[in-house]
Amino acid sequence: MTINTPSALSLVDVRKQYGDHTALGGVSLEVPVGSIFGLLGPNGAGKTTLIRMVSGITAPDSGLVSFFGAAFKEEDIKEIGYLPEERGLYKNMRVGEQAMYFAQLRGMSKSEASKALKGWFERLEVDGWWDREVADLSKGMAQKIQFIVSVLHEPKLLILDEPLSGFDPINAEIIRREINRLRDECGTTVLLSTHDMSSVDELCDHVALINHGEKILDGEVSFLRERARAGKVDFRFRGNLIAFTASLGASAILHSAKSDGNGAHDLVLGIPSDIPIEKFIKWSSSEVDVLSCSPKVISMDEVFLKAVRTTSLNPSIS
Amino acid sequence: MRNLFIIIGREYRTRVRRRAFIISTLLGPVLMVGFIALMVFFTQSTETDAKVLVVDHHELISVEFDSNKMVPSCPDCFPERNFLEYRFASEALSTEEFLASDYTLMVEFDDGILQSAKALLQYETAAPMRVKAAIIRDLTEAIERLRVKKESSLDYDTYKRLKVQIGLVTQDIITQDKNAENRSLVGWVFSMFMFMFIMIYGMHVMRGVIEEKSNRIVEVIVSIVKPETLMTAKIAGIGLVGLTQILVWSILSWILFFIFGAYAESSGMLADIMANQGVEVGATDLKTFMSSHEDLDVLLQINWVAMIGWGVFFYIGGFVLYGSLFAAVGASVEQESDAQYLLLPVMMPLLFSYMLNIKILESPESTLATVCSFVPFTSPITIMVRLSMGVPWWHVVISAIILLITVYFMLKLAGRIYRTGIFMYGKKPTFREIAKWITFRNK
Questions:
Q1: Helices B269-276, B227-266: inter-axial angle, 10-degree rounding
Q2: Has residue A1 got a pLDDT over 80?
């Protein structure tokens, strides 16, 4: 992302108050065009409020929401697809008829809509359900229809609130595939709210974490992981543990150590950023029998737990 | 605007194609006619024939025939009727004797009747109207004959010829309009339908809103259209469903009426009835038949165009007014059973104006009637009665304008409650909380 390309979505100091409750206390966000942006946070953090604001359901008390570089206008609603967390369908309508209804509300003509729907019904393996009553659908099936309805008009910005909840692993994979496909083939920007970290690991390239109505962390997933890693490496070797740790000196900090009983040891080491890993491996090979040395893999779970803990211990950091 | 019509279309289509709607719309008038016919049939067939013991203590109108058997001194006064049979006596039966006997009624009087014109009717089961009417007619004639004979030199036929009973033909001095109050019954029927449709379809609005809220579709839709648009479209769509039913019922009723009329004309039924009643007219068509009967003539006097035209207008106005309130109630709760306490204040004015109709039928020119036909919450119902009887045109116009203005503000007000309410889950809101929603800034 460069300064010159406007973000798909930009929030500047957005605030929202409900009575005495501060739902959002000044949140700023940049969602880059073509990204899958994870919006994370515990329950009640203000995610839904933020999403409702972005999807045009509510307006902020103060602050600015802009859409592709311009202030949010009513016409922009056509460019947005929205799948709320709590979602439903009309029970007394047929599947196809209902999908057509939403497509038309999104501004599509009947022929456009039925053509697009046909493709989607095939891809999500729900063809054959067109004339069925919604009441006959299983939960997963209904979820698929809801997903189709929110993406059918090929929105520039797709807002998904917990899109994978309620899906079995097979169907969750189909939805994940479709989200990636939309981004890759249609250039759709996706704002995805969830507290399921595994979907963040698999889908998102950018994330923001909000808690108590404040943003406490945001950035590219790879960057955040790298930062959380803080130079930590997993180091496995065979040799004298005590002698080796003593010889580390200032070149590395020992975080933890574990021996497997067969003479191999697992260490988590912190290596200062000015020392390249290759150099460290070269040096250590002269000391012990190095079995493996790789940057520590940090899950997003750990990244967020750490961030949430830090802010609750020290609320001034945000 | 396009979306408004798309939503109206959905609301309308999903409702009119329901089996319950189709059946009630097509069968409504048939069922109603059938129901009335059934009612008449049952009241007639369940009436047991009356056997009346006339206890004439002073033998005023009866004489002893042979040993202990009394007969009326004027047999013509007590004609034979298939549902009524008379026996005469000079001594009353005791309660036990009466209950043991096969008499259903006992009429008792002494010579006081000549002054008071009152007799005592005792029963175990109350007498049907037509039996009482027959007894009154028969006794009246018998006592009249007696008095004419006793107190004048006239014979009874002369007396009867001389006797007059004045009827009043009422006329509005300005409009020259005659017997307007007879027509108020038609207005009453209109207002009853008005009440029924506002109530039934108002509940539809409420249920529709609750459905959308409880299965959360509303969130997707209001991300596309404004909540106020969704609410307005829902009210409009359901209102049109009601209008469709009214229209179909009216057309079917006309058709049924004309089929009946044609049948009655061709089968000679009308001619028979008219001959029986001694009505002498040249033609025996339905129109002549109706105009010769005061209560049927009313139907010919009604200005149907004005009644139906204004009826539709006030239905639309009244429905949108109450519909928006029903929508606000629906938005405030998550399930229908929670809505009771909120429905009460909404239904009160509706029920009130419906009940008030009886008072207004009695005195259609009263201040109460005039005020109620201007107050927008009662006017759609009250105005129908006044319209049927004739009302200054500017009353109707003012009432219509007030209604329209109120509808506009009520839609705004209900819209504010609606747009906040549809996102409120959890506990049931109090009236105070709902009032607060009106001031919330959501957009």
A1: 70
A2: no
Cα–Cα distance measured from residue A57 to residue A46, given in angstroms and rounded to the nearest whole number: 15
Chain B CB contacts of A43 below 8 Å: none
Residue B50, helix vs strand vs coil:
strand
The answer to whether the beta carbons of residues A208 and A39 sit under 8 Å apart is yes
Q: Residue A44: list chain B partners with CB under 8 A.
A: none
Whether chain A has a CB inside 8 Å of the CB on B441: the answer is: yes
The beta strands (E) that lie in A163-295 are given as: 189-194, 206-211, 214-220, 232-238, 253-259, 264-270, 289-295
C-beta atoms surrounding A96 within 10 Å = 18
Tell me if A84 and B221 make a contact (CB, 8 A cut-off).
no
What is residue A4's predicted lDDT score, i.e. its pLDDT? 57
- How far apart CA A101 and CA A116 sit, in angstroms, is 13
Burial class (CB in 10 A: 0-12, 13-18, 19+), A269: buried
pTM of the model: 0.76
Give the integer Cα–Cα distance in Å for A24 and A9: 17
CA A101 → CA A89, A118, A310, B8, B242, distances in Å? Answer: 11, 15, 47, 11, 22
- Among residues B189, B174, B167, B394, the alpha carbon closest in space to that of B302 is found at B189
Strand-by-strand arrangement of the A70-71 sheet: A21-31, A9-18, A62-67, A70-71
Tokens of A148: 């189709």
Is residue A317 predicted with pLDDT exceeding 60? no
